[in-house]
Amino acid sequence: MDLSVDLLANAVLSGLLLGGLYAAVAVGITISFGMLDIVNIAHPAFIVLGAFVAYYLNANFGIDPLLAAALAAPIAYVGGRILYRGYYLAFERRGEESLQGLAFFFGLLFIVEVGLLLTFGVDYRTVEAPYIGPSLSLLGFFSVPFRLLVPLLVGVGMVLAIHLFLSRTFMGRAILAVSQDPGALRLVGGDPVHIKEIAFGISIATAIIAGALLIIIQPIEPSVGREFIGRIFAICVLGGMTSLGGTVLAAMILGVAESLTTTIWGPSWAPAIAFGILLVTLAVRPAGIFGR
Q1: Which CATH class for the 5-121+129-284 domain?
Q2: At 58, phi and psi to the nearest 5?
Q3: Is the whole-model pTM more than 0.90?
Q4: Cβ atoms within 10 A of the Cβ of 239, count?
């Protein structure tokens, strides 16, 4: 296939921009699955819920999608803490979090999806914002749509903020400690359940913000979250499970791989190539890029 350098360069740039969204949607799974060992398969449904919250506030009150996410994130944080408390009492405390817990989140995924279908229907929804239409031209042949640039900046900024929280605060270090050795944390007076509750609340809050970034990039409907189930777990594993830096790098790799594949062979091949990279990486380094 005859491909110009300009076309390939723009494909790589688009992949890097798309990687910013992937980092935002995967950081919550890095926290819940990588650090807390909670297989929250309903995480994509919460992303779509965040997208519809942004849509509702934008369509009815004219609120910018990013501001809508900022308003909804604290509520999602509290809801996430309540959800984890129920999960802990019903499953984790009894040691039944493996199969029964997975079934719980699988059912929760369908409950959220059906609730959105009954509320908003099956039509695709979009939002309006000043940065959705325009593009930025660089060096004469790079075209950078603001609808991709803004999610990149917000997504990477969110991951950086969480990294600083985990590395610079007492509670953040406690979350890292509970992911490594809950028994040792108890010896120094920490409550692993309380700390996991806070971390899970942060995970759900990031999903709501990621949903607002998603609807900025593309129209959404209630079942679109299924497209991200495989991607977000692949990014988490590829990045090294508990590494936020690895999550960002893996998201960029996946974004570029999908963009190049779509440009060269078409969109139907993108998932196969992306997960092929995951399999090769795990064969060479089973712990992931930054895994220990």
Answers
A1: mainly alpha
A2: -70, -45
A3: yes
A4: 29
